[in-house]
Write a structure and sequence with these properties.
alpha/beta; globular; D-amino Acid Aminotransferase, Chain A, domain 1
């Protein structure tokens, strides 16, 4: 029997169709992968996962049927990955559902759809659309085309272009790698960063090598903003099978980083804005979007569009206990996903990141009193080993980085003004 409440009989998943989780980036502390494993595995669906090594914490889940360690040469050469995936599909049988959990995986799946489609089930998209959505600069152009609010954004490929872009920008600004594969091969910045002054940015740009591709984006001050999350799964007609909104409460680093705590709250205005954009671009499949409400002009502005499963998708379920992964499985196996209201007041806490966030300045926003239930990203009473494995692996890494983490979080170093705001996967 599943630990979570079983789906109604009409929504039962086809447990003869397995799923394969696929990511390209090396990020073993992927709580999104663990969430997907538990979501499908608890309902009897065989789940397999591509892993960077057999000690990745989510590989210890009782609900994971098997791990597939992708050869190192394949991960370095995108052209080698489709053949490895096809080999895995043949071994698994039953034409498995292929689930991307990072942008590089989604982009590769769209570009190699002709090769992969005979062996997998997934919502394939036009590769040009996926390229635009996974490119920070491409996304800003799409937003302008469809009248979707987004922060002011400039593209730069050299220190000279950075200097030119700064004429139109006010500080602080946000600097991001524009293209998904660039962040893995030759990133200009280690992660999304907030830069306080013109001189800091020019000094950073002077150190770039090769062909950097970055966007410089308007920074919306935290005191003037609310961070909102939108997750959905659309069918082939771009109709949302499920669509959810939630409020980001804490992050690591505090006030500027990856989500560590969030709460599911209905927001009809944001839902209409997001689903309207999905219809306009003809989107299908799972999507994870980050929006920032700017109190200065009363607009929700799109910050990021991830055309794949988001790390925090288990924050959201409807009254049938349907999340985006389960909705996708139903759709790709030809089963209906009847509508049910979003379950409000559900919280997700990422234990290993929320603790330092609380210690070094992160705080709630008053929405805690609306919480009705809590799901932890790692701990589950019916599946405890991933939490233990995460604690060991994260603890070893944290001890090495503790001094810089403390200095960066508390503002005692110059780097406190240039802080990473996103983990390799979300």
């Amino acid at each position: 029997m599943a630990w979570t409440s079983a789906l109604p009989l009409a929504l039962a998943l086809d447990d003869k169709v397995p799923a394969l989780l696929f990511k390209v980036s090396r990020y073993p502390l992927s709580h999104g992968s663990l969430g997907a494993i538990r979501s499908l595995g608890r309902l009897g669906v065989p789940v397999h996962a591509v892993v960077e090594d057999r000690l990745a914490p989510y590989s210890f889940s009782r609900y994971l049927t098997s791990c597939i360690v992708m050869p190192a040469h394949a991960m370095r050469d995108p052209l080698a990955i489709p053949a490895e995936l096809i080999g895995a599909a043949r071994a698994l049988g039953d034409k498995p559902i292929l689930i991307p959990t990072d942008d590089e995986a989604a982009l590769l799946m769209s570009r190699h759809a002709d090769e992969l489609r005979p062996h997998f089930r997934y919502h394939d998209l036009n590769p040009e659309l996926v390229s635009a959505l996974t490119s920070k600069f491409g996304l800003s152009k799409l937003c302008r085309k469809h009248n979707v609010p987004t922060p002011q954004t400039c593209f730069a490929r050299s220190p000279g272009e950075v200097a030119a872009a700064l004429r139109a920008m006010q500080f602080p600004v946000v600097v991001k790698n524009s293209e998904p594969w660039i962040r893995l091969s030759t990133p200009a910045v280690g992660a999304t960063t907030v830069v306080a002054t013109r001189d800091e940015l020019l000094a950073m740009a002077a150190k770039w090598e090769g062909n950097p591709q970055v966007v410089i984006q308007e920074y919306i001050p935290a005191e003037e903003a609310e961070d909102w999350i939108f997750h959905a799964c659309c069918d082939y007609a771009s109709r949302p099978l499920v669509a959810f909104t939630g409020l980001k409460q804490r992050s690591w680093p505090p006030r500027a980083g990856v989500t560590t705590a969030a709460i599911s709250l209905p927001n009809e205005q944001l839902r209409e804005l997001a689903t309207g954009f999905l219809r306009a671009i003809g989107y299908r499949g799972i999507v994870d979007m980050d929006w920032r409400f700017d109190r200065r002009d009363g607009q929700y502005k799109l910050l990021d569009f991830n055309p794949r499963t988001g790390a925090n998708f288990r924050l959201f379920t409807d009254e049938n206990d349907l999340d985006v992964i389960r909705a996708m499985h139903l759709d790709l196996t030809g089963r209906p996903a009847p509508y049910a209201p979003q379950r409000s007041g559900r919280r997700l806490i990422v234990e290993n990141l929320d603790m330092p966030s609380r210690l070094f300045g992160g705080r709630g926003d008053g929405a805690d009193k609306c919480a009705k239930s809590v799901e932890y990203a790692w701990f589950a009473a019916d599946d405890p080993l991933p939490f233990a494995a995460m604690a060991v692996r994260f603890g070893a890494t944290a001890l090495k980085r503790l001094p810089s983490m403390i200095l960066g979080a508390t503002g005692f170093s110059a780097r406190a003004r240039i802080r990473p705001t996103k983990a390799p996967t979300t």
